[in-house]
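Bumping my old thread because nobody answered last time. Still need a sequence for this structure:
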């Protein structure tokens, strides 16, 4: 990447941080995408539509998801250059637009989740600290639909007695309220009695909090303990189970979007495919035409 291109990328990322509130992780992803694209262009900032049209062939071996992400990064970059008067045109219409189907999320059925809870509760009954902690983690993953990062980074005082909601900081540093059940509140209270008084985190580990990798390992071990194949379960699979089972119980899609912290409802709509049978039944039984005789 030329010095001029690097300066343009730095300006773009400064804008993304200041105006869009992008996280450090998001900014690093944008920089990586732009740097990889620059390797195949004569110049990044001054690339023409013809230059960009050749990227489809260069990226032919990449997955559709990667191509889509890199193209999206470049479109936002050139949109910024145009808006700031750093170039007079936007060549991004020539970028490749791969078509791919979003994979359906892996889910656990209610019986699987029940097995995990029964095994976790049996272990926690001993009062052993790690077992109580693990049960609290499971309650919050499945009962509140938290992302792994959101869960492990909860502050010590996140769960307050009598307060039915948690304030969670999600993607893009956006705050949202998520519900917490009375049973989860009770388990967390048991766990707090075992946490060192000086800890800043609800789930401390060393000088910081539990890592996402360690959470992944704990969840898989809990699945194995319940007689479920570990490769079927992860923190994200439990989040999917939370969403799918809520939808099956009649939750509104907009409410589900809010609970999950999805910026775009299109992300939430994936669960309508997972639970399509129930939705068909809902239309057949609740739609006004369902009771109309032929």
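Sorry it took so long. Here it is:
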């Amino acid at each position: 990447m030329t010095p001029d291109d690097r300066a343009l990328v730095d300006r773009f990322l400064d804008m993304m941080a200041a105006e869009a509130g992008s996280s450090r992780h998001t900014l690093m992803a944008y920089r990586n995408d732009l740097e990889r694209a620059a390797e195949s262009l004569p110049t990044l900032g001054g690339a023409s539509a013809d230059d960009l049209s050749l990227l489809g062939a260069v990226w032919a071996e990449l997955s559709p998801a990667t191509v889509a992400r890199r193209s999206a990064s470049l479109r936002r970059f050139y949109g910024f250059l145009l808006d700031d008067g750093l170039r007079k045109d936007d060549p991004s219409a020539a970028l490749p637009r791969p078509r791919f189907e979003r994979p359906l999320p892996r889910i656990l059925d209610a019986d699987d989740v029940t097995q995990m809870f029964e095994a976790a509760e049996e272990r926690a009954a001993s009062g052993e600290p790690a077992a109580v902690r693990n049960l609290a983690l499971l309650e919050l993953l499945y009962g509140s639909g938290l992302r792994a990062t959101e869960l492990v980074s909860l502050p010590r005082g996140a769960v307050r007695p009598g307060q039915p909601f948690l304030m969670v900081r999600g993607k893009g540093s956006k705050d949202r309220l998520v519900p917490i059940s009375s049973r989860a509140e009770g388990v967390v209270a048991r766990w707090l009695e075992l946490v060192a008084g000086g800890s800043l985190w609800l789930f401390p580990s060393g000088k910081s909090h539990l890592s996402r990798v360690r959470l992944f390992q704990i969840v898989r071990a809990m699945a194995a303990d319940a007689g479920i194949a570990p490769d079927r379960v992860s923190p994200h699979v439990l989040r999917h189970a939370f969403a799918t089972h809520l939808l099956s119980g009649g939750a509104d899609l907009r409410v589900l979007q809010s609970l999950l912290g999805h910026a775009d409802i299109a992300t939430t709509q994936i669960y309508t495919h997972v639970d399509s049978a129930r939705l068909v039944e809902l239309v057949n039984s609740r739609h006004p035409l369902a009771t109309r005789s032929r």
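The chain has two domains: 3-94, 110-281. Let me know if any region looks off to you.
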